[in-house]
Amino acid sequence: MASEMTAQTELTIAMEDPSQADIMMLLRDGEQHSAQLYPPESNHHMPLSALRASNVRFLVVRDANGRAVGTGALALDGAWAELKRMWVIPEARGVGVSRLVLAALEARARSEGVRTLRLETGVENHAALGLYARAGFKRRDPFGDYRADPLSVFMEKDLSESPE
Q1: Can you give the residue range of the structural domain that contains 141?
Q2: Which of 15, 114, 115, 120 is the most buried (most CB within 10 A)?
Q3: In this structure, what CATH number is given to the domain that contains residue 100?
Q4: Angle formed by the axes of helices 126-134 and 97-111, to 10°?
Q5: pLDDT of residue 5
Q6: Looking at the domain assignment, is residue 144 inside a domain?
């Protein structure tokens, strides 16, 4: 339950190796959640090997006890980057973990010279869609290797505008 989590001030966020056992568990939980909502061809999870690539910045949020409660990745691709593997454990939802991850990923993108952030998420991920819309992301057509999919929503944010 969200009430078990306390104020954001007790959360830390840092770049970490996604191959740690506790992180891999979170990644699997996110994949299982997606598998309940969408068929395999509509799930676009970045695999662990890709998350460890030199062009990926993988962030982990930990609570005051050091427990991993959220993840997010930034896959750099020149002037643009894609947000990947945003996941917050159910008991840590509703207290700002996802906003913290998104803000950190956006700040990292800006520091890396990224001008546009892009993402793909599912049509049933209502909380994520709301988060991204509130953060200034706008819907767009598929990008990169993605194809049009009625179960996918593609979004982007122009980082050349001043940060919020």
Answers
A1: 2-158
A2: 114
A3: 3.40.630.30
A4: 50
A5: 45
A6: yes
Residue 109: HSE in the Cβ half-sphere, 13 Å Cα cutoff: 30
Q: What is the DSSP letter of 95?
A: T
pLDDT over 90 (residue 62): yes
Rounded mean pLDDT of 139-143?
Answer: 96
For the segment 111-131, the average pLDDT, to the nearest whole number, is 93
Model confidence at 162: pLDDT above 70? no
pLDDT at 148: 93
If 0-12 CB within 10 Å is exposed, 13-18 middle and 19+ buried, where does residue 7 land? exposed
User: Is residue 68 in some structural domain?
Assistant: yes
Whether residue 164 lies inside any domain: the answer is no
The DSSP secondary structure of 43-77, one letter per residue, reads --PPPHHHHTSTTEEEEEEE-TTS-EEEEEEEEEE
Report the side by side order of strands in the sheet with 152-158. Answer: 12-15, 56-62, 68-77, 80-88, 116-122, 152-158, 138-140
Q: What's the average model confidence in pLDDT over 24-48? A: 83
pTM over 0.90: no
- Counting the structural domains of the chain, the total is 1
Identify whether 138 is part of a domain. Answer: yes
What is the reported pLDDT for 52?
94
